[in-house]
């Protein structure tokens, strides 16, 4: 049950955003879920264990985990996201998945599973003590820390644009997590997953993204750049880089 006003607002946001979020998630070409599942299996963290996926949403990580672990529980503030997870589990024939509709703030600070996991959960470093207490043996945090693409970088330099604030560019908070975990007395280790993808963009796509935000001098530079780049082609190839970092530490029962 959602209790606080802030929790209610957060739940309403994710309930409304869930269809678009899940659609984008399903279209992703990044193999992070498979790679992280394989890594945790190799580290003997997943096999024959129970997992609590905090803020697990529609089951992006929980479903692959459930193919390896004994039992996986998704805890999420959004009932609509959990509905998507349930549908996906049924379609995949996954039967060892449990759903819990609750806010992070409402989870009791005591062991809930052998492994506590979260990906992109907006935790403050001060909340890592409680997060650690949810696991009997391991705690695992996964975050996307870098996303760059070649055209955005080139245009930012050409037009003197400020860097785009992206939730996936989260290297600073990850460093704070490492420090906070060490201050709690744990010995964390890290694993990095880097992916390079390409996609095609058209002149129209770039104009729709940028044109309305530019000053007249920037507009002139932008139009010159477009004329040069699209002089003999209909599309440009964008080189994209995504970096994920996973922080892991062994926890002990107190």
From TrEMBL:
Pfam families documented for this protein: Methyltransf_25
Molecular functions (GO terms): 2-polyprenyl-6-hydroxyphenol methylase activity; 3-demethylubiquinol 3-O-methyltransferase activity
Domain (Methyltransferase) ranges: 51-128
Superkingdom classification of source: Bacteria
UniProt keyword annotation of Methyltransferase present: yes
Keywords from the named record: Methyltransferase, Transferase
Gene3D superfamilies noted in UniProt: Vaccinia Virus protein VP39 (3.40.50.150)
One of the protein's GO biological processes: methylation
Keyword Metal-binding: no
Source organism of the structure: Loigolactobacillus binensis
Enzyme Commission number(s) from the entry: 2.1.1.222, 2.1.1.64
Protein's name according to its UniProt entry: Class I SAM-dependent methyltransferase
């Amino acid at each position: 049950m959602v209790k606080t006003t802030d929790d209610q607002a957060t739940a309403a946001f994710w309930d409304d955003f869930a269809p678009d979020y899940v659609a984008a998630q399903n279209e992703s070409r990044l193999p992070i879920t498979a790679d992280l599942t394989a890594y945790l299996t190799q580290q003997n963290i997943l096999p024959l264990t129970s997992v609590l996926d905090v803020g697990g949403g529609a089951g992006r990580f929980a479903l692959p985990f459930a193919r390896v672990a004994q039992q996986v529980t998704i805890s999420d503030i959004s009932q609509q996201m959990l509905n998507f997870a349930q549908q996906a589990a049924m379609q995949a024939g996954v039967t060892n998945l449990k759903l819990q509709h609750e806010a992070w703030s409402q989870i009791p600070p005591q062991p809930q599973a052998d492994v506590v996991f979260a990906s992109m959960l907006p935790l403050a470093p001060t909340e890592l003590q409680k997060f650690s207490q949810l696991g009997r043996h391991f705690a695992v945090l996964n975050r996307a820390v870098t996303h760059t693409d070649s055209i955005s970088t080139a245009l930012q330099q050409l037009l003197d644009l400020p860097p785009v604030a992206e939730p996936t560019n989260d290297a600073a908070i990850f460093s704070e997590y490492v420090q906070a975990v060490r201050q709690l007395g744990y010995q964390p280790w890290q694993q990095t997953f880097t992916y390079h993808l390409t996609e095609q963009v058209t002149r129209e796509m770039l104009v729709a993204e940028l044109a309305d935000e530019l000053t007249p001098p920037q507009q002139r530079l932008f139009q010159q750049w477009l004329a040069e780049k699209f002089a003999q082609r209909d599309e440009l190839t964008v080189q994209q880089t995504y970096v994920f970092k996973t922080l892991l530490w062994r926890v002990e029962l107190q």
